[in-house]
Amino acid sequence: MLEQFLEKGDILLGEKCKDWEEAISRGCEPLLARQIIVPSYRDAIMENHRSMPYMVIAPGIMLAHARPECGARGLGITLMTLSPPIPFGSETNDPVSFVITLATPDDKSHVKMLEALTDFLMDDDLREKFLAARTEEEALAALASASDK
Amino acid sequence: MKILVCCGSGLGSSFMMEMNIKKALKEMGVEGEVSHCDLSSAAGNKSDIYVGTRDIASELTGLGGIVVSLNNMIDKKEMKDKLAAAIEEFKAKA
Question: What does the alpha-carbon distance between residue A12 and residue A33 come to, in Å, rounded to a whole number?
Fold first, then answer.
């Protein structure tokens, strides 16, 4: 189901980033390019993370997002894997190898997308399959198989 | 029984946890009202059980409810076990 929210280029695989700031910037790029978010949104994500690393929601997984009023104009999501993984300053969940960047224009528009994301993340087999993907096609195939279940 | 799930912005991880908690309550056959909000609104939203990821949970103590702290938000077992323990504690207090 999640694949229906992704445009071409929203899956970034095996990215090399020098630190968490660069990783957040990289994950925002496709959304910036389509003007789903403006630069202030990316900056707000970094600000959020600096104040508390709570967005590292599970071992190795960062859910990068800010509030709509910080500069989100539309609904969007990017999925990025990091190779090698990078420390994000989380006491229990470092290092991060998977950065999910979310944008929603309001408090409600992203409900279906979050449901799809939750289903995907909580399925260990599918998540592993996605993380092992080498091409966008393989990654999309992993996501699409989630909706068959 | 009121359960409030909190995160920094009130629309990402808290929303996802709310979905999971609703599913878990259903599986456990427990009635409960579940909602989510951002951390700054938590104090004004009196609840019996507060849930947050580890960093958030430390800010939720002192609000007068039972606090559930999750290390791994997508670990269904951790969530279910800790939620069940919190519900028991709530029942014991009631």
Answer: 14
Just give the CATH number of A2-148. 3.40.930.10
Residues 6+ apart with CB under 8 A from A62: A20, A23, A55, A56, A88, A96, A98, A99, A100
| Widest pairwise Cα distance in chain B | 32
End-to-end CA distance of chain B: 10
Q: Hey, is the C-beta of B75 within 8 angstroms of any chain A C-beta?
A: yes
Annotated active-site positions of A, please? 65
Q: Measured between alpha carbons, how far is A120 from A142 in angstroms, rounded to an integer?
A: 9
Collapsed DSSP state (helix, strand, coil) of residue B49: strand
Architecture of domain B2-93: 3-Layer(aba) Sandwich (3.40)
Structure confidence by residue, pLDDT tens digits, B10-68? 888 899 999 999 999 999 999 999 999 998 899 999 999 999 998 899 899 989 999 99
Interface of A with B in 7-66 (CB under 8 A): 48, 51-55, 57-59, 61, 63, 65-66
| A58 phi, psi to nearest 5 deg | -160, 165
Q: How far is CA A82 from the centre of its chain?
A: 11
Question: Which single residue is written with the structure tokens 């999640």?
Answer: A2
Nearest to A103 by CA among A15, A20, A5: A5
Instruction: Indicate the angle between helix axes A111-122 and B13-28, nearest 10 degrees.
Output: 70
DSSP assignment of A81-114 equals: EEEEEE--S-TTTPSEEEEEEEE-SSSSTTHHHH
pLDDT digits (tens, 9 = 90+) for A74-126: 999 999 999 999 999 999 999 999 999 999 999 889 999 999 999 999 999 99
